[in-house]
Design a protein that fits this description.
136 residues; 3-stranded antiparallel β-sheet
């Protein structure tokens, strides 16, 4: 006797497939970015957000709302970028509780070098599909 497949079962299977595809892409991005540019995908994501921001600067709280990391994980990522001279952190002069992350010239250069690798890796794994994640 076979069990009837419910819509909830189909949803769970679709979620599992999406999760597998997402993790496959993320692992490939990490591998390529690390090998060619010494960056994790999370570090690249922060550099990209800062590169796109006005004055190449954003509050840490704003970055936290736009990345897939917890506040503490984001702080560690920004700390590594700061140690490598790619980002600087400064206190807000009007609100000492706020901290800004700012892209340095070295950070801009590393981002510009890594961006084609990230885009090429995404394109190779997705056949340029706008949905980014496709079924094999």
């Amino acid at each position: 006797m076979t069990k009837a497949v419910t819509s909830e079962d189909q949803l769970a299977a679709a979620w599992r497939d999406l999760s597998i595809r997402y993790n496959k892409v993320l692992c490939s991005l990490d591998r390529e970015l690390q090998a060619k540019h010494g960056l994790s995908s999370s570090e690249f994501e922060v550099l990209e957000l800062l590169a796109e921001a006005d004055d190449h600067q954003a509050r840490m709280s704003e970055l936290a709302s736009r990345v897939h990391l917890s506040q503490s994980a984001l702080s560690r990522v920004v700390g590594r970028l700061e140690k490598d001279g790619l980002v600087v952190r400064t206190m807000c002069s009007s609100d000492r509780r706020s901290v800004f992350a700012t892209l340095t010239a070295s950070g801009e250069q590393r981002y510009a070098q890594a961006r084609p690798t990230q885009r090429e890796t995404l394109a190779s794994l997705t056949d340029g599909c706008p949905q980014l994640l496709r079924e094999d």
